[in-house]
Amino acid sequence: MLAANLMSLGLWLFQAEGGEAAGFDPLSMWHSMGWPARFVVIVLFIMSAWSIGVMIDRWIAFSSARKQSRVFAPAVAGALKDGKIDEAISIAEQNKRSHLAKVVTAGLQEFQAHQVSTEIPGETIEASKRALERAAAIVHAELKRGVSTLATIGSTAPFVGLFGTVLGIIHAFQGIAGSKSTGLAAVAGGISEALVTTAIGLFVAIPAVWIYNYFTTKIESFDVEMDNSSSELIDYFIKRASRGKK
Q1: In sequence order, which residues have a C-beta less than 8 Å from that of residue 210 and are 6 or more positions away?
Q2: Residue 49 belongs to domain spanning
Q3: What pTM does this model have?
Q4: d(Cα 37, Cα 118) in Å, to the nearest integer?
Q5: Does residue 200 have a pLDDT over 80?
């Protein structure tokens, strides 16, 4: 809404300067801008393209992880219930995009490497627990990859737009000095240029902040799922150890 109001005000100023409403299009505005303001717009569009790329990449990664986890969780639970650790590892390897599979695989492989008899020493369970924690930390970093960029873009894009606004105001005062007039026509071009860069900055920042918060919530839910899976797997190892001692 704020960006639309700024664009409307820029349109009014452009018309006051003698332009037609039909000429208020991106190409016309681009030609009316000075190179400093054009540089600001280019930077903002690069930031926008980068944030869109991160959004698409993380959306695909999160969707794939969610879908594979829904298939993986019941399948591996059934294999472990029957005591088929090799089968559970095989199922995990078939669902490599699943965040749960990456964590569970690390714990199962560590457990299998230390399993030398039916009696499982406490050191084996501790080693598996550490493997699960390391895997969870690695997966968390993978899930978060690029997401912090959205926060950076969301927080800096308005200031980049504000920088363009300052350049536009300077341009407006240069127009006053050049025309030796203080009328609206002398400043309309510079102010219009300033408002457009501000609007673009907000247009880039608002979606980036919104998607960053959304992705952060998703990552937190993934972390909870990985913690729960790790705890359940450790409980499974402990139960196996208890049965082995009998």
Answers
A1: none
A2: 2-245
A3: 0.74
A4: 72
A5: yes
How distant, in Å, are the alpha carbons of 111, 190, 204 from that of 197?
58, 11, 11
Cβ-based neighbour number of residue 43 at 10 Å: 20
**Residue 145: φ, ψ to 5°:** -55, 125
Retrieve residue 186's tokens.
């002398």
Max CA-CA distance within the chain?
99
Number of domains comprising the chain: 1
What CA–CA distance (Å, rounded) separates 244 from 98? 31
CA distance 7 to 4: 5
CA-closest candidate to residue 27, choices 13, 9, 41: 41
Q: For residues 53 and 95, what is the distance between their CA atoms, to the nearest angstrom? A: 25
- pLDDT by residue (tens digit) across 12-21? 444 444 444 4
Find the helix or strand (DSSP H, E) in which 32 lies: helix 26-32
